[in-house]
Amino acid sequence: MSDKNRSLALILCLLFGWVGAHRFYAGRTISAVIQLLTLGGLCIWAMIDLLIILFGEFKDSNELKIADWKMD
């Protein structure tokens, strides 16, 4: 499991998904920049990421799932 906070990734995706904030947070810089330049893939990509985060399948840059609901 990743040390990233799934709750924070979800909030970032909801509020700033169109600029790839959740991907920057997860360390996925290249795809985050692409998402930033395409406005979240016209928000479609951001919505798909939102679902992936909700279902616990979103991964960080080390390919570890961000699956725990941490409230630290």
UniProtKB/TrEMBL annotation:
<keyword id="KW-0325">Glycoprotein</keyword>
<keyword id="KW-0732">Signal</keyword>
<keyword id="KW-0472">Membrane</keyword>
<dbReference type="Pfam" id="PF05154">
    <property type="entry name" value="TM2"/>
</dbReference>
<keyword id="KW-0812">Transmembrane</keyword>
<feature type="domain" description="TM2">
    <location>
        <begin position="3"/>
        <end position="50"/>
    </location>
</feature>
<feature type="transmembrane region" description="Helical">
    <location>
        <begin position="33"/>
        <end position="55"/>
    </location>
</feature>
<keyword id="KW-1133">Transmembrane helix</keyword>
<dbReference type="InterPro" id="IPR007829">
    <property type="entry name" value="TM2"/>
</dbReference>
<protein>
    <submittedName>
        <fullName>TM2 domain-containing protein</fullName>
    </submittedName>
</protein>
<dbReference type="InterPro" id="IPR050932">
    <property type="entry name" value="TM2D1-3-like"/>
</dbReference>
